[in-house]
Amino acid sequence: MNLIVAVDKNWGIGYQNKLLVRIPADQRFFRQETINKAVIMGRKTLESFPNGIPLKDRLNVVITSDPDYRVDGAVVVNSIDKAIEAVKDYDTKDVYVIGGESIYRQMLDLCDTAHITKIDYAYQADTYFPNLDEMDEWVLTGDSDEQTYHDLIYTFNKYERIK
Questions:
Q1: d(CA 54, CA 128)
Q2: Mean pLDDT of the chain
Q3: 3.40.430.10, 3.40.1440.60, 3.20.20.70, 1.10.3720.10: which CATH number matches 2-161?
Q4: What pLDDT, on a 0 to 100 scale, did the predictor assign at position 163?
């Protein structure tokens, strides 16, 4: 399975249930990577989308502890195991964990590829992604040239888990 996320220089990913910044090229990359595939997310991540509507042209799997939670256009489950079961018809390379912090942390050990957009700026954040640079089992296997969006510098990075 894959993880996909944009992080700031402190590995921050969000503040008050919103992305830290929206970079059009990063949003295009996210769409390109996940279109016609399966995405797994927590309830708060879904609710952070415009109008709380699931992503188009993807199997949306939402994990929540609320047994009464329902949303049109998504499969709602109450555990990581049930999320994995919901995507069983997809090749694992076509499954993306897309947040938030708690879901990333719970599913990190189940994933073998992480697509990380690193933004060279420190934002005020209240949610974080685990720092893969500090984990021996994760290795940076690819990075793009520096990109810019207005005054922001960022790179697209690929990490892979060492087996």
A1: 23
A2: 97
A3: 3.40.430.10
A4: 75
